[in-house]
Specification:
five-stranded mixed sheet, mainly alpha, elongated, 68% helix
Length: 510
């Protein structure tokens, strides 16, 4: 006699699900190891090199066999400002002490954290619905092409996202059975997620608020000591870090947030079209649409509150970080598990209907082949993106520029990644002049042409060299280009870089 749910067959054989899950997690980790040793310029290179410089600076505090100038420069360059505790950087730098400095070590850690998040997602979807949707949701999470590439990057977001998913899982377990053990677990996971990167607060608090308002009830929650305990654990690690002064975050965060929060964008239709394009690129428009509507297929008093809270938290996240939400794609990494989780109710109903209408082994084999085939296509697409470009030549290029400048010069430049490539491989610190995008966002923040011109004059004062490696950006700023050519001689020039000598103005120039 056929079972109503195909999942029930496997429920009687839990070892089959365990084997399938292990194989999926291993495959998800393996695809992220492709082209492991290439330089970290394939995704958000500015943010990755930021962490790379910081990790190297930490590591060189323990290096005793390097030249003094190199050790001092590594420590100085690693002192770049921070917006969150250097958790991943500390972990990588301590590993360097055992292995030597290899940037690909960070890829292993980030990939491992993301895959562990897949385990938490599987457990959550299984508890929310059943095993079948849990497997499919985990496949989506691990093999969506954007996620494959972004989740192995050297930055806190992969770890943060994994901790967010563990927080959701712990909150769902706590809502079903109020025990101190589950409350503490939810609080610790949420607190660690916020500590690793504070933007996670939207999806941590969103899920918590959904559970509180939809399951516990506000009046009861205000009297529930476990609710207060979870809330305290959410904020405690970050509060201790900030109050200790270890990060020196307040001033830098204020300036950072000033260039992120643009409420006037909320009434601009273009903002929402850009948002739609972004999420379609991240997770696929169809998957996102089904995931959003799938929330209404859930049980109102068991499943829906958590999912509704997460979606509202995500929407609030996008409104607060309206500019960065479509310019910094790594902000969207937590959206991948949100879509994977939200697809579960629709997948559960589909599998139920599928087995009812198509009993027997053959339809199930066809379904399995379609799912695995689709996953393979996604994995190959990610692999193809990684194989399409190699960045290994960049190391020698920036080392050459560092040698030309002399490593201890005072430099300002219009270069890739705000000078971080020059800093990492050229061992040369530099100030970064604005790109066109930087100038535009400052216009949005209320600055004008006079402010930009004054800023340029201030920035080049006392500098020895102006370095250009972004010739397109240089051409897009004709005022700056003409000023440099008319006031300063060219110190060095190739097809790939241009250096102006700011120490020796042309005759007749101040």
């Amino acid at each position: 006699m056929n079972k109503i749910f195909s999942e029930l067959i496997f429920r009687e054989r839990p070892w089959m699900w365990k084997i399938a899950l292990v194989l999926i997690l291993m495959a998800g980790f393996a695809i992220r190891m492709y082209d492991l040793t290439d330089l970290p310029l394939d995704f958000s290179p500015t943010r990755q090199l930021f962490s790379a410089l910081k990790a190297r600076g930490m590591y060189y505090q323990y290096v005793t066999d390097a030249p003094d100038w190199q050790r001092d420069r590594a420590i100085a360059l690693g002192g770049v400002g921070t917006f969150e505790p250097p958790v991943i950087e500390t972990l990588v730098s301590q590993t360097y002490r055992l292995t030597g400095e290899h940037l690909w070590i960070a890829r292993i850690y980030s990939s491992l954290f993301w895959v562990l998040g897949g385990l938490a997602l599987f457990l959550l979807i299984r508890d929310l619905t059943s095993y079948g949707p849990a497997i499919i949701g985990t496949l989506f999470y691990l093999f969506v092409p954007f996620g494959v590439i972004a989740s192995r990057s050297f930055q806190p977001d992969p770890l943060m996202t994994a901790l967010i998913v563990f927080t959701w899982w712990a909150l769902f377990r706590w809502q079903n059975k109020h025990t101190w053990k589950r409350a503490i677990l939810a609080g610790l996971f949420g607190g660690l997620a916020i500590f690793v990167k504070n933007t996670s607060i939207f999806l941590v608090i969103g899920g918590f608020a959904g559970v509180i308002l939809g399951i516990v009830g506000l009046k009861r929650a205000l009297r529930d000591i476990q609710v207060w305990g979870i809330g305290i654990l959410f904020v405690l690690p970050t509060a201790i870090f900030m109050l200790s002064g270890a990060g020196g975050l307040s001033g830098s965060l204020q300036g950072y947030f000033a260039l992120q929060f643009f409420p006037e964008m909320w009434i601009d239709p273009a903002f929402y079209f850009r948002w739609d394009y972004t999420i379609s690129y991240i997770a696929g428009f169809s998957a996102t649409l089904v995931a959003g509507l799938s929330v209404f297929l859930t049980e109102p008093k068991r499943e829906r509150p958590l999912l509704a809270g997460l979606w509202l938290g995500y929407l609030l996240f996008g409104l607060v970080f309206s500019y960065a939400f479509y310019t910094h794609y790594y902000y969207q990494l937590p959206f991948i598990p949100l879509v994977a989780l939200s697809l579960a109710p629709a997948l559960h109903l589909f599998l139920k209907r599928f087995v009812e209408k198509s009993p027997g082994i053959f339809p199930r084999l066809v379904l399995a082949a379609v799912i695995l085939g689709g996953t393979a296509v996604q994995a190959w697409s990610a692999r193809d993106s990684l194989a399409s470009a190699s960045y290994r030549h960049e190391e020698a290029f920036w080392a050459e520029i560092g040698n030309v400048l002399g490593h201890d010069a005072s430099v300002i430049g219009l270069t890739q990644d705000y000078g971080y490539r020059l800093a990492y491989w050229g061992w040369q610190s530099s100030s970064a002049w604005y790109t066109s995008a930087d100038i535009n966002v400052r216009y949005m923040a209320g600055q004008d042409d006079a402010d930009i011109a004054e800023k340029f004059a201030q920035d080049i004062a006392g500098k020895q060299f102006f370095l250009v490696t972004m010739f397109g950006e240089f051409d897009n700023q004709p005022v700056i280009k003409d000023y440099l050519y008319s006031h300063y001689p060219v110190y060095a020039e190739t097809d790939e870089y241009l250096i102006f000598d700011l120490n020796h103005p042309l005759e007749g120039q101040p």
